[in-house]
Design brief:
73% of the residues lie in helices and 0% in strands. The protein has helices spanning 2-15, 26-33, 38-43, 51-66, 71-97, 100-112, 114-120, 126-145, 153-170, 178-188, 193-215, 220-229, 242-260, 262-278, 280-290, 293-296, 310-324, 328-347, 354-363. Helix 4 (51-66) crosses helix 5 (71-97) and helix 5 (71-97) packs parallel to helix 8 (126-145). The radius of gyration is 21 Å and the shape is globular.
Length: 368
Amino acid sequence: MAIAFLLLFLLSRIFFINSQPLFFDSPEYLTRLGDNDYLNAISSGHLPLHAGYILLFWPIYQASLILGLNAAFIVILGQIILATIAIYLFYLSIKIISDKTTAFYAAIIVSFMPIFWITNVTIMMETTYLAFFIFTLYFLVKFSMSLNTSTNHRYYIVLMVLSLAFSILTHLGIILWIPFLIYLSFFLNRKRVAKITASIVLSIFIASFVNGYLINNSNPFLGILTLYTSKLGERAQFNYDIQSILVYVRNFIIPLLRNFTSLIVVLAIISLFKTYFKNKKIFLLGLLWILPSIVANQWWDSVLFGRHSMVAGFGLAFLAAYFIKNNRPAILATIIYLLITVFPAIYLLKEDTPYLQLAKSAEKLPKG
């Protein structure tokens, strides 16, 4: 069943591959991937650099050019493979955290989430940061549950550090989910909290120093300061008044409803209420998985608003699946709903893209 699902997931992504520079950052990524200077490709671009994405896919892009292949297509194929591995490790992680049934349905729900599907099949960095975050999740779970005498014990913690560092190197916003990771370690094995927390700090330091060096190689610490302050002015400002509160609530809720579907958000909220009374450990885990999106969703993106909180989508899927796992009619209705609502939107990727058509029209407007 799992193999059939993963194969279907892989094929559904390959069918919808769109290698055009679809979104605002896509042309920049294609330019950087096509740069013959590897170091310059990694260190150029807008802040934060999303260096992990270029670091991983530059060799693939360049090799594809040498072989005469469609380099952008091959990069997206690589993203799809990453996403497939991530879905499988998400399933394995939830199976340990909760149970096999919840894990299976959570993986199905995630695979239908519109923003996840779109960023899997276009030139965008989101699949990379998300995949390495799920790798982190899996290795954290395995390390927490492994015996000290296990031969894989040390490998899990090393792989967790590297995966988290790479995820942060790709997208700085992952730091917002550090409390979730620390609580997850507490949830699974209190004896491992200190070691996992220290490992997380190490991951943040590695990613921050590499980023700082790429921004300012003569003074990496100044580069780190530049990195962490670069986006402060590009978010909704909070002024301690009713209007600010309403703006923050709007920015928090609307992207979740659009990007992860209204039904899944509603099911997750009901699940939170239910677990608050029946299983507070699951309640806190789900809450900490979603809450960082309050901050992450305040960064405005005209086309993919809310793309910085995609990690929360996996939490919503987990909570929704946890709530309906023993109700087969509800499960069937949820899958049908996702098919009806998501597929028509995704199919637009096979047609002339409205965003690109608008951009072409805008170029024809008279200057001034």
